[in-house]
Specification:
The chain has 567 residues and is an alpha+beta fold. The strands form eight sheets. Strands 1, 2, 3, 4, 6 and 7 form a six-stranded antiparallel beta sheet that branches. Strands 18-21-22-15-23-24 form a six-stranded mixed beta sheet, with helices on both faces. The protein folds into three domains: 4-167, no CATH class; 289-432, no CATH class; 455-559, no CATH class. The structure holds adenosine-5'-diphosphate (ADP) and magnesium ion.
């Protein structure tokens, strides 16, 4: 393996050569304390930056094995190292010429601790993946700047961040222990009969709509109502107390601006772990919880929405319902049926983003518009059947209609950002003030019908390229010639997840579609491959910018592909 000194002299020699000559530096280099691997060299200074890796042997890095013995700890430590490396890279990354020249960058990071491809580690070595903008002026190589960047700055970053002795051991411990405790609580939820847990002291509000860090001033810490308080005996922190949200049907009520949506949002993202001091590090949710909302305008491909929608005008089928432009209510029905198709166990609904006519149909409206004239069976008339027949719980923010008191198991009122349990009062009111509604949902929930996708309807090609994917933040991905709009899929929290989802769709098509396999069967297979081999299995070469995603969000992307057809 050539040495770093040899790489430096190559770079000096390339000074002023045409940019293409950078291709020569692809390969592995011995930097004494670590190995540098250049996997891919960009074609010009404006192209996607070059892909680099470093590998540091554990014999030098010296991370105590107890920091990565359990899967929870390993993910937490990898996340920690990614953040350290990213921070150091940001301080040393600088503009060194044209385009992306001088850039040193990693995966985009938020408040969640995710399983990413940026950093790996085991008892032999640590591997970190990042990108570098190889310096140029115009299309001429800036060799000396490149030598400085690669042979001085990168070793400096590695030195600061990938050796145990140069890091803060307390902070590392705090991160691995926090994540391990949160995972422990999550693993205990089913046997405790809970769908979510919100620890006392948790800080739920965020700084702003575009800043996901905890609100700094005047945030009121969460405090469970005594009747819902539960306690977990966690492996590291010991006892953690807070509010347990039981399985079944739970309403969150309360006046406007009293913190209902903030609580629900924290629970939505509680399917992921969060950094220590995020405020939500012990807000923990069943991993099968899916946010449901209305999403008018989305396309729907052959979904059986008949539990909710029947007898549409013009006799359109609702057992295999397709449309390029769904209404609020049909989109919400499809979102629920698609979530159930891939085995959601908890539905999270906020009235702010739900279709009113999907949620309720009150006594007076039942009098005015006969059932035969209303295709929609409102959610209120299916919510119980969904739990009794399929074990699917619902957590619903509903400040605007008391009709749900009849079907709720638990009612939580938010008052000045504090939760109170008001189930008894709500039940009493329901008894004293009948709604006079006719229930319209029947005995059974109805059929959940898994669909078989047509592989050819999923086409990632564009122009000469057989696969062209381009991710724009967490909201949108260009998939071949089509843009998939994921702005209403609120549990995608990181751009790396969406990149992985788009890549996994191509992988799913190539490897697992066909043979009459249904969407849940295909997704099971993709996830089993990733579980066994890691995310690298879905890409051709090592990529540092992917993050693990859930089955629900992979399905969501497929379902929003407008070209999707099912058999
Ligand atoms: P609702 O859904 O009940 O109308 P929101 O959850 O949207 O209310 O909260 C209203 C505002 O209060 C938001 O700006 C939110 O950030 C803030 N907020 C929510 N919870 C807290 C809290 N515990 N402490 C301080 N501010 C909060
Ligand atoms: Mg709200």
């Amino acid at each position: 393996m050539p040495s770093s000194a040899q790489l430096r002299s190559t770079l000096n020699r390339l000074d002023n050569a045409s940019y293409k000559a950078y291709k020569d530096i692809k390969g592995s280099y011995d930097f004494e304390d670590f190995t540098l691997i250049i996997d891919h060299v960009q074609g010009d200074p404006f192209a996607a930056p070059s892909k680099f890796r470093v590998k540091v042997p554990q014999s030098l890095a010296n991370f105590p094995p107890k920091l990565f013995t359990s899967p929870s700890r390993e993910i937490a430590l990898r996340d920690f190292l990614t953040r350290q490396f990213d921070e150091a890279a940001k301080t040393l990354s600088s503009r060194r010429g044209t385009g992306k020249s001088g850039l040193i960058a990693m995966a985009k990071l938020g408040q969640e601790v995710l399983d990413r491809t940026a950093t790996f580690l085991n008892d032999k070595e640590i591997e970190v993946r990042f990108v570098v903008g190889l310096p140029a002026r115009g299309r001429r190589i800036l060799g000396r700047q490149a030598a400085e960047l690669i042979c001085e700055d990168i070793p400096e970053i590695v030195d600061r961040t990938l050796f145990y002795d140069s890091l803060n051991p307390k902070k590392i411990r705090q991160q691995v222990e926090t994540v391990e405790d949160a995972d422990y609580i999550r693993s205990q939820l089913p046997e405790r009969g809970l769908v979510a847990f919100v620890a006392n002291g948790a800080i739920l509000p965020r700084r702003s709509g575009v800043d996901d860090r905890p609100l700094k001033d005047n945030a009121i810490p969460f405090q469970s109502p005594p009747s819902l308080e539960v306690e977990f005996d966690c492996p590291n922190q010991g006892k953690i107390t807070g509010m347990g949200i039981p399985q079944g049907i739970t309403l969150i009520v309360g006046g406007g601006y009293h913190g209902k949506s903030t609580l629900l949002r924290a629970i939505e993202v509680g399917v992921y772990n969060h950094l220590p001091n995020d405020g939500r590090e012990f807000v923990v949710t069943d991993p099968h919880a899916v946010k449901i909302r209305a999403e008018d305008g989305r396309s729907i491909a052959g979904v059986n929405i008949s539990p909710f929608i029947n007898q549409l005008p013009q006799n359109r089928s609702t057992q295999q319902f397709s449309t390029p432009n769904a209404s609020g209510s049909t989109s919400q029905a499809a979102n629920i049926m698609e979530a159930l198709e891939v085995e959601a166990k908890v539905l999270l609904v906020d009235e702010d983003t739900a279709a009113t006519n999907f949620m309720i149909r009150d006594h007076r409206m039942q009098q005015l518009i006969q059932k035969e004239k209303e295709p929609i069976t409102p959610f209120i008339d299916k919510i119980r059947q969904l739990y009794d027949g399929h074990g699917v719980s619902t957590l619903l923010v509903m400040g605007g209609s008391g009709d749900y008191f009849d079907v709720a198991d638990t009612v939580i009122a938010m008052d000045n950002f504090c939760p109170y349990e008001v189930t008894q009062q709500a039940k009493k009111i329901a008894e004293e003030h009948a709604t006079y509604r006719e229930t319209e949902g029947g005995e059974e929930f109805g059929e959940i019908t898994p669909r078989i996708p047509v592989a050819d309807s999923i086409d990632p090609s564009r122009g000469k390229r057989s696969v062209k994917l381009q991710v724009r933040d967490v909201d949108e991905v260009a998939f071949g010639t089509e843009d998939i709009d994921l702005s209403s899929v609120e549990q995608i929290v990181n751009v790396g997840q969406l990149r992985a989802i788009a890549t996994a769709l191509v992988y799913a098509k190539d490897r697992h579609m066909g043979k009459q396999r249904t969407i849940p069967e295909i997704i099971d297979r993709v996830l089993a491959d990733i579980e066994k081999n890691g995310l690298d299995i879905i890409t051709d070469y090592p990529q540092g910018d992917l993050a693990v995603f859930r089955r629900f969000e992979l399905a969501a992307a497929l379902n929003r592909l407008r070209s999707l057809e099912v058999e």
